[in-house]
Amino acid sequence: MALFFDQEWFDRQLAAHGKNRADLAARLGVNDAEIIDIWKDQREISPAEVAIIAEFLDQSRAEIASRCGVSTPSTSPLTAQHAQQDSTTEISPADRETALSNRLARIEGRLARLEQTLADIHAALVNRDSGQD
């Protein structure tokens, strides 16, 4: 699994399909700033968005989840249709629970990666400081 959003892979996939980031943004229903944030790994990808991207690029959800740095592939019953629904549309309790569980798993995965990165930085600083004595 990629630890972070795999920009190069997505750019290659888009090019291979004759598409670009603007095309993907339009399909996801997001603006230019949001697609830039996705590419910079500053915006989480939802399970519904994983499904949309997988369909758009003719890839599996697991592959897209992995390349997005999502800790677990989307098994959510939410589909592209759900992602395009108005926010006032009711989602079933089971779908909501699945979506929330998937989001929590992604957040926990990100938190673990951040904690490991901080520990690595701390260790490097300690080693650097101890070498200067």
Question: How would you summarize what this structure contains?
Answer:
Helix content is 67%, strand content 0%. It has 133 residues and is mostly helical.
Largest sheet: none
Rg from Cα: 18 Å
Low-confidence stretches: 74-89
| Percentage of residues assigned to helices | 55-70%
Topology:
Elements: H1 7-16, H2 21-28, H3 32-39, H4 47-57, H5 61-68, H6 80-84, H7 93-131
Helix pairs in contact: 4-5
Features:
mainly alpha; 434 Repressor (Amino-terminal Domain); 67% helix
Task: Describe the fold and architecture.
The chain is mainly α and 133 residues long. The chain has one domain: 434 Repressor (Amino-terminal Domain), CATH 1.10.260. Helices cover 67% and strands 0% of the residues. The protein is built from seven helices and no strands. Helix 4 crosses helix 5. It is globular and about 55 Å long. The N and C termini lie far apart (40 Å). About 12% of the residues have low confidence.
